[in-house]
Specification:
The protein is an alpha+beta fold. It is 44% helix and 14% strand.
Length: 911
């Protein structure tokens, strides 16, 4: 499919205002819009019947638009609006619509638009449909955004409704859709389809993929009597048929009260159905199967699943529209025809946003497990491991423990028995990558050694990477990635982490059995040593302490909107020193500080700047979504930190960093003493207490290190990124690249080839940018099959109140407070005592944890970073709450049951 701004179709002159369906195909989107191009293409498919018609081209629209007063200025103004500014969008779009509607159509253009009616039949009825040049694309459907008019009779009426379609490019809903999806109003034009009406016995839609589960093997057919308008508007319930592999596997025949038919005088009318017809199916089973076969033929022609409008007249099925289904999550590519089951990597890494190609390729270079790509996300194929009983049990236990929704979804797949073969265990199952069964001695020196080795390795990289450039840089990075993998997957490192996790699980299971105390390990792991992620949040509190004592610095930072604010902080001190000299009469001029005019002179700017720089020196490689190397780091965009720092200034008391650490340490020691005392009172209590003490020591010694391997990885990523961006700048200077960040849309090896050849495919960059925008609108499933089915799991729990939201308990305690739903870290506006509700939290989110008193996320597991830090801070937390950001209203009071694993949305006053 051509891009929205494609120039394909320019073989037609600009004054070509009308094209028949037979003259158009999928390459003419820029001329006849998405709908018109699809109808032209449909008419070329053997065995597909399309009602006759023609397209009024986008050239006709542009000619009329040029006569609308002040149109360029108004469209430019429209492009600057925010999609949530509904009043401004509504008012300005109405002005533009009125301007288009009031502009007269030139006589020669009007004659051209109505001339084909003489051939098709002036007395016939027509459907007049909008066909925007950014409509029905593989990445954006625009379905329902512009207008359609049915049963239009006569040249004058057709011309009038063509004009209405032109104006509908600027309806509020169409304008808002374009703003949200990044389409430039100035590059989207309106063509119009004029198509003979069919008076159908039945009509409806068919989807060549299941619209609920996304299964591509399923065809879904919806049917009703008369025109499809009744179904689309929801005035009647549809018969629904499910077809799989050429057979109807499910059907539901609705009771239909009415049908919509064409009215002899134009337009449409409702007609009540006879009582004996209301329960009758609109189609026979044979017709349904025939429809499904036609759908597969159309899908094969276009190369992607289709949403198809059809009608049945005198036994003949006619297709009146087909568009791509844009809401389906893509399927990972496979080099065979076998069934596959994939598990989301993003849900394990607490980053479910799409990644750009360079980020995807770096993660694939880093991981020891082959990963498949789809929708800008990565997935692991677990098919073979599920097929073998021994490895199946290990996979199910591991994934089910970390994310019960993944575990339950996989159990659903296994129970169905249609995707995973059952293979005998011919050889002992190999341990999965990362398995480390050996338990090391509980030795803090081992943790210290591992940390020092990682730090030394990263320091060596920082020294050496600046000595290479050009193609040699890429070879250097490939070699260094092997060193990174050695650090990440060092057996001793994995043994430390796994022994900590196993000790934590042991404590929870045994102490619940012995003492009836749930989630004891959560309390015992507060304020552990060596947790670089939780230390980061406390360090940002210390930065706030430095800044808080300088009110003018605080005011300056509140107004800062550019990343050079750190340099200007130092200049604040210079301004203060100049003011002191001026007061003593020792200053003749005030040079070099003009840009700070109007800012209060203040001491403390240099101190504040040094504190922020020191924080960035240790943590500046972090950011939200940090596993994607293309994401801007805090050191690259330090303004990202300002809301977090100022939030701490406003909501946290001085000295809170050290105070919170000590409070957590005291709470952990108190809980330990209580548990051991209660154990000793049991039969065999001394042995139980002794074993429990060993496990407490092990988990407290080792669990903090859990955060270090990823810290080393993202530190290395920043060094790689800085060096690679220097290569990108050289490409920009050479004219091969428009913007240095464009290289983010190249894979690692593509980037290396570009540096080697000095050439970059700009069209590839643009296509990847468009695809990335489309990926941002998709929600990745936890489990995905090669049929495209998004398999959902459930908690299947009886201990959750009916009106509560179930999740996974990861940090014990119960807390009540105001929910703040945050989807973008940069937009976080939290007050002390709020409960953070978000999709997922990687380490870049953890500085917010020092302000909140509870956490709810849609993704996550027992040992994901957010859960680990929440436990260390003593924050009750429930993760894996499906659709939490949608089901929990922002500002509503909620109760988080971090021990039992559910969230209650509390009634508002008056409920």
């Amino acid at each position: 499919m051509a891009d929205a701004d494609s120039s394909v179709g320019e073989s037609y002159p600009s004054d070509c205002y009308v094209l028949g369906f037979e003259e158009t195909d999928r390459t003419h989107v820029a001329v006849v819009g998405g709908k018109g191009a699809h109808l032209g293409e449909l008419s070329r498919i053997e065995g597909i019947h399309v009602p006759a018609g023609y397209c009024v081209t986008s050239g006709a629209f542009r000619r009329v638009l040029a006569d609308v007063p002040s149109i360029d200025e108004r469209i430019a103004q429209l492009s600057r609006l925010h999609p949530d500014d509904r009043e401004s969008v509504r008012a300005l779009s109405a002005e533009i619509r009125a301007g288009v509607a009031e502009t007269s159509v030139p006589d020669d253009l009007a004659a051209a638009i109505t001339a084909p009616l003489a051939r098709l039949g002036e007395g016939a009825a027509y459907a007049v449909r909008s066909s925007a040049t950014a409509e029905d694309l593989p990445t954006a459907s625009f379905a329902g955004q512009q207008d359609t008019y049915l049963n239009i009779v006569g040249p004058a009426a057709v011309l009038e409704h063509v004009s209405r379609c032109w104006a509908s490019l600027f309806t509020e809903r169409a304008v808002t859709y374009r703003l949200r999806n990044g389409f430039d109003h100035r590059t989207v034009h309106m063509a119009v389809v004029v198509q003979q009406m069919v008076s159908p016995d039945a009509s409806g839609v068919l989807f060549t993929a299941d619209p609920v589960t996304s299964n591509r093997r399923i065809t879904s057919v919806e049917a009703g009597f008369g025109l499809g308008e009744a179904l689309v508007s929801g005035r009647v319930n549809a018969d629904v048929y499910t077809v799989r592999d050429g057979e109807i596997v499910d059907k539901s025949v609705a009771v239909k009260q009415l049908a919509v038919h064409a009215s002899p005088e134009g337009g449409t009318r409702e007609q009540a159905l006879a009582p004996d017809q209301r329960g009758e199916p609109a189609l026979t089973d044979t017709q349904v199967v025939r429809l499904a076969r036609l759908g597969r033929r159309i899908e094969a022609h276009f190369g992607c699943p289709q949403d198809i409008e059809w009608c049945l007249s005198d036994g003949d099925i006619q297709i009146v529209q087909s568009r791509p289904i844009t809401t389906l999550f893509p399927i990972p590519a496979a080099d065979d025809e076998e069934h596959h089951v994939y598990v989301s990597v993003g849900h394990q890494q607490m980053m479910t946003d799409p990644m750009k190609p360079l980020g995807l390729s770096f993660w694939q270079l880093t991981t020891p497990v082959p990963m498949a790509e789809a929708g800008g996300r990565l997935f692991v194929d677990v098919t073979e491991r599920l097929a073998s009983p021994a490895s199946r049990d290990r996979v199910m236990e591991s994934l089910g423990r970390s994310d019960p929704l993944i575990g339950d979804a996989l159990r659903t797949v296994l129970d169905r028995g249609d995707l995973i073969p059952s293979l005998p265990d011919s050889t002992p199952a190999e341990p999965p990558p990362g398995a480390a069964p050996t338990v090391p001695d509980t030795d803090a020196d081992l943790v210290t050694e591992l940390i020092e080795r990682g730090q030394a390795s990263n320091a060596a990289l920082e020294r050496e990477i600046g000595t290479v450039s050009g193609p040699a840089l890429f070879d250097f990075i490939l070699t260094d990635v092997e060193e990174l993998r050695r650090i990440l997957f060092d057996p001793r490192s994995l043994q430390v982490i796994m022994s900590a996790l196993n000790a934590s699980w042991w404590l929870n299971e045994r102490l619940e059995a012995w003492l009836g105390d749930k989630s004891v390990a959560d309390a015992l792991t507060q304020s552990v040593p060596d947790n670089v992620t939780s230390q980061m949040g406390l360090a940002l509190l210390d930065v706030a302490d430095v800044i808080r004592s300088h009110p003018d610095v605080v005011a300056f930072l509140r107004a800062a909107d550019s990343d050079d604010f750190l340099d200007k902080l130092h200049e604040l001190d210079e301004l203060h020193e100049l003011d002191e000299l001026d007061e003593r009469g020792e200053l003749s001029e005030r040079e070099g500080v003009d840009e700070l005019e109007g800012v209060n002179a203040s001491a403390g700017g240099r101190e504040a700047g040094d504190a922020i720089r020191a924080f960035l020196g240790k943590h500046g490689m972090r950011c939200a979504g940090e596993i994607d190397i293309t994401r801007p780091r805090w050191s690259e965009r330090p303004t990202t930190l300002l809301p977090l720092i100022l939030n701490n200034v406003d909501n946290v008391e001085p000295g809170a960093g050290e105070q919170r650490f000590q409070e957590g340490l005291r709470a952990a020691r108190t809980k330990e003493a209580e548990v051991l005392e209660r154990l000793r009172a049991l039969p065999g209590g001394e042995a139980k207490a002794e074993e429990t003490k060993r496990m407490i020591n092990r988990v407290r010694t080792f669990i903090g290190y859990r955060e270090y391997p990823k810290y080393f990885m993202v530190s290395r990523y920043l060094h790689y990124k800085r060096a690679l961006l220097e290569e990108a700048e050289r490409l920009v200077r050479a004219g091969a690249l428009a913007e240095k960040e464009d290289v983010f849309f190249l894979g690692f090896h593509e980037f290396r080839d570009a540096v080697r050849t000095g050439q970059v495919d700009g069209r590839l960059i643009r296509r990847r940018e468009e695809a990335f925008r489309a990926h941002q609108t998709l929600t990745p499933p936890r489990v995905l099959t090669s049929d495209g089915e998004a398999v959902t799991g459930s908690y299947r729990r009886a201990d959750v109140p009916d009106d509560a939201l179930a999740g996974l308990a990861v940090s014990a305690g119960t807390v009540e407070g105001r929910a703040r739903v945050v989807t973008d870290l940069a937009q976080a506006d939290l007050a002390a005592g709020d409960i953070l509700v978000t999709a997922c939290t990687d380490p870049g989110w953890s500085p917010l944890f020092v302000t909140i008193k509870g956490l709810v996320t849609e993704a996550g597991g027992l040992m994901t970073h957010g859960a680990v830090v929440a436990r260390e801070y003593g924050l009750p937390a429930v993760v894996g709450v499906e659709d939490a950001t949608r089901l929990i209203p922002d500002g509503r009071r909620i109760r988080v049951h971090g021990t039992s694993g559910y969230v209650e949305v509390l009634p508002e006053e008056g409920d």
